[in-house]
């Protein structure tokens, strides 16, 4: 225990018990049937069963729409906060994060009650509103973090070369803020695809997302197929993370 590397042992044990082992269990259930025999039929259901395919496509559609809404709303907010000259911009940014201190399920139920009180029927519109409300801070903060650290000398140099404010934004500010946008997209898009409680509450179960299908499999004790769908979701998240990670490295290198 005198070596500094020994202090990593608790973290290693934690990773094995709560990360590696659960992943192995998911893979084990996904690749076996109810009798414990090896099979790929559970994974094949992701591509062949209409209900699963349709829910995944609907989830992608909702995730894309929610991500676009969060970008359109979040980027201007982050830009304004980063350009504020006063020292309280960080406090204002924190105010957008404060709702995240409340349990997400409680926020969703409260949002549904507000729509009920206003007499607004639950559907895709209320779902997108609730999604944007839940995930907008995840878009604002990474963009704000990048913009606030951006040196004003870049804009000043562009202006000295004759660029107007619009050109400066699209040629300098926006490309340099891409790492924050990429991080925000990753933090909004993938959770939207895999969520289930928000869609069930804000659509009254009229819209079933991919996360709801996975939850339904486990609720009906269909562990193998539920594990297979979860594994497919993990694979998609992993591929997306690798792709966006490379894009972020390129953006930070100034090659966007």
Give the helices and strands, then pairings.
Elements: H1 9-30, H2 41-48, H3 50-83, H4 89-97, H5 104-118, H6 124-149, H7 152-160, H8 165-176, H9 178-194, H10 197-203, H11 210-219, H12 223-252
Beta-strand content bin:
under 5%
| Computed structural class | mainly alpha
What is the count of structural domains?
2
The number of strands is 0
Mean pLDDT: 86
CATH class of the largest domain: Mainly Alpha
Provide structural commentary.
The protein has 256 residues and is an all-alpha fold. It folds into 2 domains: 1-30; 49-252, MetI-like fold (Orthogonal Bundle), CATH 1.10.3720. The protein contains 12 helices and no strands. Helix 3 (50-83) runs antiparallel to helix 9 and helix 7 (152-160) runs antiparallel to helix 8 (165-176). The mean pLDDT is 86.
Sum this structure up briefly:
This protein folds into 2 domains: 1-30; 49-252, Orthogonal Bundle (MetI-like fold), CATH 1.10.3720. 78% of the residues lie in helices and 0% in strands.
Q: What attributes does this structure have?
A:
256 residues, globular, mainly alpha, 12 helices, MetI-like fold
């Amino acid at each position: 225990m005198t070596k500094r590397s020994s202090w990593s042992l608790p973290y290693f044990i934690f990773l094995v018990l709560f990360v590696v082992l659960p992943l192995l269990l998911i893979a084990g259930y996904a690749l076996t049937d109810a009798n414990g025999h090896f099979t790929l039929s559970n994974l094949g259901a992701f591509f062949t069963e209409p209900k699963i395919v349709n829910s995944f496509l609907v989830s992608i559609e909702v995730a894309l729409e929610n991500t676009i809404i969060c970008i359109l709303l979040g980027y201007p907010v982050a830009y304004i906060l980063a350009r504020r000259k006063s020292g309280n911009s960080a406090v204002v940014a924190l105010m957008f994060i404060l709702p995240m201190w409340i349990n997400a399920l409680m926020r969703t139920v409260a949002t549904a009650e507000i729509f009920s009180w206003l007499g607004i029927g639950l559907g895709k519109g209320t779902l997108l509103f609730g999604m944007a409300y839940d995930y907008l801070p995840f878009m604002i903060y990474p963009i704000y973090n990048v913009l606030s650290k951006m040196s004003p000398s870049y804009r000043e140099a562009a202006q000295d070369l004759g660029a107007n404010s619009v050109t400066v934004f699209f040629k300098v500010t926006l490309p340099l803020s891409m790492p924050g946008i990429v991080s925000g997209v990753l933090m909004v898009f993938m959770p939207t695809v895999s969520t289930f409680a928000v869609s069930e509450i804000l659509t009254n179960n009229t819209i079933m997302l991919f996360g709801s299908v996975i939850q339904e499999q486990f609720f009906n004790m269909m562990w193998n197929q539920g594990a297979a769908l979860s594994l497919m979701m993990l694979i998609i998240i992993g591929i997306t993370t690798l792709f966006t990670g490379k894009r972020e490295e390129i953006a930070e290198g100034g090659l966007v």
